[in-house]
Specification:
With 269 residues, the chain is mainly β. It has two domains: 34-92, SH3 type barrels (Roll), CATH 2.30.30.100; 117-268, Porin (Beta Barrel), CATH 2.40.160.20. Helix content is 14%, strand content 51%. It contains two helices and 13 strands. The strands form two sheets. An eight-stranded antiparallel β-barrel has the order 6-7-8-9-10-11-12-13. A hairpin with an 8-residue loop joins β12 and β13 (251-268). The protein is elongated and about 90 Å long. The termini are far apart.
Length: 269
């Protein structure tokens, strides 16, 4: 019995030690895999080494981080060979273009990975004869640096809720982390007067709007930008006014035009 207890006492620490060794080896191999170094040999004989390479399909170039932490870029056509296999096919299938990977100010150490779609959410403040507030959202497709989609919102103009429904067109001006852009919105407006505007009547009097603006997308995570923009808008809304008659109970629907300046703050996914 004494011998069995002794053997058991010896085997238990040994099994724990074995478990620790296996765990360390597993974690080391996992870390090595996640930090695997890639080699690209260019047609001029240059060899480039680095980590986390990906293909910027917008400019047909490879972006990679060097062991020193520097981000380098080189044309895919200049690559003679690599150790990735069919590199271009693998990364074209991810459908994530363009990528934005650069160091930017304000202590932010990451840039956006833009996908083939976008979603915007904004709070808006508008000024004409008074200050009006609202919210807006838009969703659509990214086609390189061109973005096309549709949006809707809720405005409070003249103490009446208004629902704009619009086309949203946006163009990124630079392929950088902090990305400036210009855009235009135009559409129709619904309100409590149950006026049902239609696209075919856009050139006629009725509730509608059109505007242009510019702004910046600033990455705050790998999937989200903080967005700030502003511009000018032409807005036509319906209002109820007392009709010019002897009966004070008779009202008519009229249209009021506004030329507005506005600022929007929100996020972009």
């Amino acid at each position: 019995m004494g011998q069995k207890k002794r053997l058991l006492h010896i085997s238990m620490p040994f099994s724990n030690l074995l478990l620790i060794i296996v765990s360390v080896l597993f974690l080391s191999s996992t870390h090595t895999f996640s930090q695997e170094r890639y080699t690209f040999r260019l047609k001029d004989g240059t060899e480039l080494f680095g980590y986390n390479p990906f293909l910027d399909t917008l400019k047909s170039r490879i972006v990679m981080e060097t062991p020193e932490g520097e981000v380098i870029r080189f044309p895919y056509e200049s690559v003679y060979s690599d150790n990735l296999g069919p590199f271009i096919n693998i990364y074209e299938q991810t459908r994530k273009a363009p990528y934005r990977l650069k160091e930017i100010p304000f202590g932010i150490d990451t840039c956006r990975l833009t996908d083939f779609y976008f979603f915007e959410l904004r709070g808006v403040g508008m000024y004409a004869d008074s200050i009006y507030i609202g919210i807006e959202s838009a969703i659509g497709l990214r086609l390189g640096m061109f973005n096309f989609g549709f949006g809707a919102g809720l405005w409070n103009i003249s103490d009446i809720p208004r629902i704009p429904v619009f086309v949203h067109i946006k163009v990124d001006l630079l392929d950088e982390c902090i990305r400036p852009f210009v855009y235009t919105d135009f559409g129709i407006i619904y309100d409590e007067y149950k006026i049902m505007p239609s696209i075919k009547h856009l050139m006629e009097p009725g509730p509608k709007f059109a505007g242009i603006g510019l702004g910046f997308d600033i990455p705050v995570s790998k999937t989200m930008d903080f967005s700030l923009d502003g511009g000018v808008r032409y807005v036509v809304v319906a209002n109820e006014r007392q009709a010019p008659s002897c009966d004070p109970l008779i009202y008519s629907i009229t249209y009021t035009e506004y030329y507005m300046g506005y600022i929007r703050i929100g996020v972009t996914f």
